[in-house]
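Private note to self, pasted from the team thread so I don't lose it. Backbone tokens:
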């Protein structure tokens, strides 16, 4: 038990964590902190300890999912908030890192796991996005925006619905759309962005996805809105899209491309743009340099997923004779979004357990709470990167974005 004691003393200094070991021994780590509620956990067996020592995030996540790491005071959100508050990104040290051997193995596996050839890409998308429609209805907003919202108002009072609508306005303003423009939405989800862009700007939008379940919903929504002639959805890999578009937008899809495919992605986007075309990529990103996806997320949530460093995006987009015309870093917006999703998931516990089971519910709450921690206290952010082919296409100041966003939000 000495090793787990050493680990916990190093990892928990702010806030109080009380741990009950399998033999019934109880120990409290850290010191009281008014910003961190005390948490008490119990290890059901020694396997929990071994798993945590090998890889803290994966070991704790799997033990929690299996009901072998029991949270007796607080909940999983409180537990992960406490754990990550002791390993802030800004402090430059992470006591929750996996062992060096695990990190090395993760880096090696990362290259293979994120290759994302066409067949594997479709399987990876289906793993996450073809879950029950009912699940997403329970924790997302009514428009099913499954990406970072934009909190233009006070996050403490602004609703998730308003923040997601503001996100669409924020992106639409950057695209500088005009009626009749042809827009490609790469990774269109359930169709909300495409429908918004047409409704607000009169653009013709083609959305592409690899999720059969999302495609069904998106097409149904376009038909119900009576806009199927102007908003179309296709089940196709972006690499197989043909034609040209005045604008291209991709929200929450670049995380599934994989570093090996970044140069091909940007070349494809550039080739699909008209000479005066503009593209916007909205993606989760790393505030630091390149890394690899943690084992829990890869295994249970997003197989093949990877959040890029800005340097990786810039390097991969070089040599295409276009311009990086705007870069914005959203630092805390996704933390607020994830907290809203987490709260809605907890409120819908009985319905989610009825859809799946307790283990799935625990996995989902660990995923959302862990993701919140990564944005609120770790090194994840969101990037919005704009590209244009012609230096004269867009105004030379950002005023058009601000003015356009205000008009869209007031509409």
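Design output:
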């Amino acid at each position: 038990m000495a090793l787990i004691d050493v680990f916990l003393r190093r990892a928990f200094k702010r806030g109080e964590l009380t741990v009950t070991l399998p033999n019934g021994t109880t120990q409290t780590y850290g010191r009281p902190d008014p910003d961190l509620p005390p948490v008490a956990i119990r290890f059901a067996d020694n396997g929990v300890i071994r798993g945590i020592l090998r890889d803290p995030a994966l070991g704790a996540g799997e033990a929690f999912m299996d009901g072998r790491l029991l949270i007796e005071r607080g909940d999983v959100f409180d537990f992960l908030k406490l754990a990550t508050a002791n390993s802030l990104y800004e402090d430059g040290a992470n006591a929750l890192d996996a062992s060096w051997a695990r990190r090395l193995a993760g880096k090696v596996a990362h290259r293979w796991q994120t290759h994302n050839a066409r067949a594997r890409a479709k399987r990876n998308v289906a793993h996450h996005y073809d879950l029950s429609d009912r699940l997403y209805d329970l924790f997302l907003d009514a428009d099913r925006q499954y990406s970072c919202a934009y909190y233009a108002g006070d996050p403490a009072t602004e609703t998730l619905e308003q923040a997601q609508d503001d996100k669409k306005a924020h992106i639409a303003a950057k695209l500088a759309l005009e009626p009749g423009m042809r827009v490609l939405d790469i990774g269109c989800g359930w169709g909300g962005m495409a429908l918004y862009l047409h409704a607000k700007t009169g653009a013709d939008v083609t959305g592409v996805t690899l999720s059969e379940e999302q495609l069904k919903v998106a097409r149904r929504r376009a038909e119900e809105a009576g806009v199927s002639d102007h908003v179309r959805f296709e089940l196709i890999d972006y690499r197989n899209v043909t034609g040209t578009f005045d604008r291209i937008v991709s929200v929450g899809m670049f995380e599934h491309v994989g570093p090996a495919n970044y140069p091909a992605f940007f070349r494809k986007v550039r080739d699909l743009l008209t000479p005066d075309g503009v593209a916007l990529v909205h993606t989760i990103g790393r505030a630091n340099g390149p890394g690899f996806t943690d084992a829990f997320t890869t295994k249970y949530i997003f197989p093949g997923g990877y959040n890029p460093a800005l340097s990786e995006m810039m390097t991969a987009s070089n040599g295409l004779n276009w311009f990086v015309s705007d870069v914005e870093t959203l630092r805390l917006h996704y933390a607020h979004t994830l907290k809203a999703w987490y709260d809605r998931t907890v409120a819908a516990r009985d319905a989610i357990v009825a859809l799946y089971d307790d283990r799935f519910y625990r996995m989902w709450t660990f995923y959302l709470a862990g993701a919140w921690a990564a944005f609120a206290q770790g090194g994840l952010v969101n990037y919005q990167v704009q590209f244009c082919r012609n230096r004269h296409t867009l105004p030379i100041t950002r005023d058009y974005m601000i003015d356009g966003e205000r008009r869209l939000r007031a509409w």
